[in-house]
Amino acid sequence: MDDTPVTGLPQVGELGALDYVVIALMLLISSGIGLYYRCTGGRQATLQEYMMADRSMSVLPVAFSLMASFMSAITLLGLVQEMYMYGTMFIMINISYIIATPIVCYFYLPVFFRLQKTSVYEYLELRFGYPTRLCASIAFSLQMILYMGIVLYAPALALSAVTGLSRNLCILVVGSVCTFYSALGGIKAVLITDVMQSLLMFAAVGIVLVTGLQSFSVSEVFQIAGDSGRLQFFVLDPDPRVRTTLWTQVIGGCFTYLSLYGVNQTQVQRLLTIRSLRKSQCAVWLEWPILMVLSLTTSFAGLLIYAHYKDCDPLLAGIIHNSDQLLPQYVVQFANSTPGITGLFIAGVFSGSLSTVSSSLNSLSAVTISDYIEPLIRKLRPGTKVALPAHFAPLISVCFGIVCIGIAFLTAVLGSGVLQASLTVFGAVGGPLLGLFTLAMTTTRANEKGALPGLILGLFLSLWIGFGQPKPAPEYMPRSTDGCYTDNYTTIATTLATTATTTDTTTYTPPPGDDFNFLHEMYAISYAWIGAIGFFITYIIGLLLSILMA
């Protein structure tokens, strides 16, 4: 094991010509796939082909797309940060994937497959009327726009840390490219590029594993993590304010997974591009091990990075200014000796966001046409058959792409790390939506008079708890700068180390009064419970009001 102190840590790295070639090649191939599907087959001449691929897709690309649509750059940057700063408790969320996958396959998916509608929210209109459908669709649109902002911000953060390029420029590049090929090639282009981009994400993680295991054995990595207290798998504390426990990961993780893969427009729309229900279910089952492999390997990469930095934490040393930059900092320091490797890593992080944003743009285009424009036309012109031209969908995708780029510039104000921020967004909106769909599918006593107020209340309370301020300061695992030296071997001052962490914590001064105590306890609830809270509020209130107002 190499215990040599880290000296002269670089803050930014110089990319070579081959690095730029690798990045440019990935961007060009992604754009080329969009052009290919624009010029071949049906040439995206109908909305059915643009948004549903004429139900002609096979299992494998859909399975990869299901994973890549959400577990992308967030996984690469956020999971590394999670393992490094908080420990391994988050890994137990993989148990929830095992529990929730059959529920998705055999409870939620058959309902949408029998319906065969472009928008999943059409089902809500059949059960609860158009106002409920509209409210749910708007909530989904808000959810995806916020999420796209987060995943555009993530690779921009990586590139600014590694190359010194402008973060805003990186956001514009990623946002523009994914908007381009998504708008041109429709869902076919999105699904095929997802396969390539998924492989590049695995390659990015592989760079860390191959590089790190040259200095540490697997047993040494776990030994170092254990000595620092990072190996935690069975924290059973029932306190909902504890950030991650076995209960938050297994129970809370189930609600998050179900909201993502059971009733989310982006995922269901992909599953409906397959012709048969059985094959669509196979895609979900195949997505599960792909997701777990990426999750577990990225988690181990986080422990590897801690093993390298255990005596010289780059955040405390002021080398980086946010824990989300740990992964790119490691790559530029330890993996840039081979030409093109840094470029491959950047391409992998780029790919993560490209796949997620392009999938979201396509689904937002679908719900805008199906839930907003077509119902409006039918209302203004009763009896008129609605048949929008196919070019409407690409134009809407472009508009959402522009909005997404704008939102990305504001993402940093979430202040809780890209992984936690993304899960908070999905919990706060996805939980109530999951509760609404489950209410519609499990009881005939529910009606619009109860379902719509239940959804609104669930959304309000979930967003309030999830994003209310001030939040208590996070508690990080122990880190050290004892092994840090400058180029002249002068120990870095502790005051510098303390100052360097101010951008990665939340500082607040408790105001006096009993009211604050109540709010403080509510805001302190773990982000992992937000989805479950939203689910139960929506379901219970929706059912009770339906019975009372029947």
Automatic annotation (TrEMBL):
<keyword id="KW-1133">Transmembrane helix</keyword>
<feature type="transmembrane region" description="Helical">
    <location>
        <begin position="58"/>
        <end position="80"/>
    </location>
</feature>
<dbReference type="GO" id="GO:0005886">
    <property type="term" value="C:plasma membrane"/>
</dbReference>
<feature type="transmembrane region" description="Helical">
    <location>
        <begin position="451"/>
        <end position="467"/>
    </location>
</feature>
<dbReference type="GO" id="GO:0015293">
    <property type="term" value="F:symporter activity"/>
</dbReference>
<dbReference type="Pfam" id="PF00474">
    <property type="entry name" value="SSF"/>
</dbReference>
<keyword id="KW-0813">Transport</keyword>
<comment type="similarity">
    <text>Belongs to the sodium:solute symporter (SSF) (TC 2.A.21) family.</text>
</comment>
<feature type="transmembrane region" description="Helical">
    <location>
        <begin position="20"/>
        <end position="37"/>
    </location>
</feature>
<dbReference type="InterPro" id="IPR051163">
    <property type="entry name" value="Sodium:Solute_Symporter_SSF"/>
</dbReference>
<feature type="transmembrane region" description="Helical">
    <location>
        <begin position="199"/>
        <end position="226"/>
    </location>
</feature>
<keyword id="KW-0812">Transmembrane</keyword>
<feature type="transmembrane region" description="Helical">
    <location>
        <begin position="86"/>
        <end position="113"/>
    </location>
</feature>
<dbReference type="InterPro" id="IPR001734">
    <property type="entry name" value="Na/solute_symporter"/>
</dbReference>
<feature type="transmembrane region" description="Helical">
    <location>
        <begin position="344"/>
        <end position="369"/>
    </location>
</feature>
<feature type="transmembrane region" description="Helical">
    <location>
        <begin position="134"/>
        <end position="154"/>
    </location>
</feature>
<keyword id="KW-0739">Sodium transport</keyword>
<keyword id="KW-0406">Ion transport</keyword>
<dbReference type="InterPro" id="IPR038377">
    <property type="entry name" value="Na/Glc_symporter_sf"/>
</dbReference>
<keyword id="KW-1003">Cell membrane</keyword>
<feature type="transmembrane region" description="Helical">
    <location>
        <begin position="284"/>
        <end position="307"/>
    </location>
</feature>
<protein>
    <submittedName>
        <fullName>Sodium-dependent multivitamin transporter</fullName>
    </submittedName>
</protein>
<feature type="transmembrane region" description="Helical">
    <location>
        <begin position="246"/>
        <end position="263"/>
    </location>
</feature>
<keyword id="KW-0472">Membrane</keyword>
<keyword id="KW-0915">Sodium</keyword>
<feature type="transmembrane region" description="Helical">
    <location>
        <begin position="418"/>
        <end position="439"/>
    </location>
</feature>
<feature type="transmembrane region" description="Helical">
    <location>
        <begin position="166"/>
        <end position="187"/>
    </location>
</feature>
<dbReference type="GO" id="GO:0006814">
    <property type="term" value="P:sodium ion transport"/>
</dbReference>
<feature type="transmembrane region" description="Helical">
    <location>
        <begin position="527"/>
        <end position="548"/>
    </location>
</feature>
<feature type="transmembrane region" description="Helical">
    <location>
        <begin position="390"/>
        <end position="412"/>
    </location>
</feature>
